[in-house]
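ok here's ABC-type sugar transport system, permease component:
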Amino acid sequence: MKKIQQALQPFTVHVILLSYTVIALFPVLLVIMNSFKSKRGIFKDPLALPTAKTFSLVGYQKVLEESAVVTFFANSMIVTVCALALILLFGAMAAWALSEYRFRGARLLYFLMGFGIMVPIRLGTVSILNTMVALDLTNTLTALVLVYVAQGLPLAVFILAEFMNQIPKDLKEAARCDSVSEFKIFFQIILPLIRPAIATVAVFSMIPIWNDLWFPLILSPGESTQTITLGVQQFIGQYTTNWNAVLSSLSLAVLPVVGLYLIFSKQLIRGITSGAVK
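and the structure:
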């Protein structure tokens, strides 16, 4: 009986994981599938695959011809890449300081980082908007980058600090005995060792930045600074919605996230399984 239970346990785990995968991917596949169908085909049978009768690229044609989708993509890429670079750089430096050095105020900084994770940054939207207006940064991508850096830093510091604490002290002390500077220890020894954690932070930070609609709508609603999630809204009207264009835009918007996951999937899995997220 015990052998049967041991044999069934992996099977049960795989069934649960496959079921969760299907449930998680089903909305994405549904959007992509319906983006290649005509409007009549979408509403007649939304769960059916595109056929020769229902196949249509009118949504992609409308998105490419009647909207500044290239500008929207470029804005999203600029904001996401700049925010991620600053989050990873400043997050790694702060995590290194908190995990390696003992100084007064370290516990307070940890508390503030934890506070930043628990409290949604959207609660400070009014203050953030007033600050951006005072700095004359409204309708600029800089405002979005600054907000997203502040949003992503607490989680980045916690994850990276946890990884840095696992690095043997002997390795760092040996480097110091060889007169290696703290700058080289950080960039040439520590950062390469925490690549799985960096990939984890990059993926976890990128998704909310790329998908965010709240701050682009409030801080940069101008036509030249709209991100892809905000640009899609032009196809959603009060009384009518161009579902072909909406689904096509969403299908295009998901491509960078999928590409990032494919590139960093190995590092992401290593980071999660080695205790980056607890």
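+1. The chain has two domains: 1-55, 57-276.
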